[in-house]
Amino acid sequence: MRLDRYLSEQLVISRSQATALVRSGRASVDGERTRKPGQPVRPGTSEVTCDGEPVPWVPEITLLMHKPAGCVTARLDASERTVLDLVPATWRRPALAPAGRLDKDTTGLLVLTTDGQLNHALTHPARHLPKRYLATVEGPAMLATDEATLAARFADGVALADGTRCRPAGFRWRAPGVAEITLAEGRTHQVKRMVAAVEGHVLALHREAIGGLALPEDLAPGSCRLASPEELLALSERGD
Ligand code: URA
Q1: Are 63 and 213 in contact (CB under 8 A)?
Q2: pTM given for the model
Q3: Over its length of 240 residues, how does the chain's per-residue pLDDT go in tens digits?
Q4: Which of 16, 25, 35, 199 is 20 to 30 A (C-alpha) from 67?
Q5: Helices assigned H by DSSP within the chain
Q6: Which CATH architecture has domain 130-210?
Q7: CA nearest to 177, candidates 132, 134, 131
Q8: What homologous superfamily is domain 3-54 in, according to CATH?
Q9: Mutate-to-test residue for ligand 1 from 67, 123, 192, 195, highest number of ligand atoms within 8 A of CB
C-alpha cells in the first residue's frame, strides 16, 4: 500500500492532505524519514510515524448496533448524546462512522463501520438496498384504509407533500396500527413523510432489517458488537 493512502485511512484525512503531510517531511517508515507519498508500506508490518508519533495499522471494524431512542446518528454533537457515545472504548476508532442515519426517536438496526467501501455500499442511493421498518401509526383515515389499497399506493411510489415521488416500497399491516414498510431508498424522515402522505402519523419507528440481515436478537437496545463474516454478507443482500 502507498504511504499516502495508509496515512489517509488511519488518520482519517483526505488523500491530498496525506500527500502534503508526507511531502513536508513529517512522516517516516521503519525509522527513515521520507518525502515520497507513493512509498510502499506493509500494513501491520511497517512502522509508520507522523510527527514522531506511531501510526499503527488498525484493521477495519464493522459494528451492529441496536440504536435506542434518544440519541442522534452523528459522530459528534455539541449537545446531544450520539450513537458513538454508546460504542465501548475498545472499538472506538477515528474512522468509525454510522452507515446511514436513523432519527433521534427511531430505534433498531444501525451499522457503524471504518470501511468506507462498505459504508458506501450500504448507503449509496443507486444500490437500492432494502431497509425494513416497523411503524406504529395513528390517524383514522390511514387506519380505515384497507391493506391492499395502501400496499398499491406504496408499490406505485408515494408522492410526498413536497411533490417528491418515492421509489416503489413495500407495505403490509403486521398488527392493527403497526405497519411493516420496506424502502429501497433513504430520504430524510422518509417513512414518516410517506405515512403522512397517506394521512397517518408515525408514533414509533423501528428498523428491523438492512438488506438480508435482521436485527440480531442478542442485541439489547443501546448495545453493539462486531458483525460476523456471515452477517456482513447478509447486510449487502438485496433479495432480487
Ligand atoms: N424514516 C424515517 O422517517 N426516520 C428514520 O429514522 C428512518 C426512516
Answers
A1: no
A2: 0.84
A3: 999 999 988 887 889 999 999 999 999 999 999 999 999 999 999 999 999 999 988 888 999 999 999 999 988 888 999 999 999 988 888 889 999 999 999 999 999 999 988 999 999 888 889 999 999 999 999 999 999 999 999 999 999 999 999 999 999 999 999 999 999 998 999 999 999 999 999 999 999 999 999 999 999 999 999 999 999 999 988 776
A4: 199
A5: 3-11, 15-23, 116-123, 140-144, 147-156, 190-197, 229-235
A6: 2-Layer Sandwich (3.30)
A7: 134
A8: RNA-binding S4 domain (3.10.290.10)
A9: 192
Q: Which three cell numbers stand for residue 51?
A: 510527527
- Asked if 113 and 129 touch (Cβ cutoff 8 Å), the reply is no
Please provide the CATH number assigned to the domain covering 62-126+213-235: 3.30.70.580
Same fold, 3-54 and 130-210: no
Beta-carbon neighbour count of residue 88 at 10 Å? 10
> Which residue out of 30, 51, 103, 218 is catalytically annotated?
103
* Ligand 1 pocket check for 103: Cβ under 6 Å: yes
Does the beta carbon of 73 lie inside 6 Å of ligand 1? no
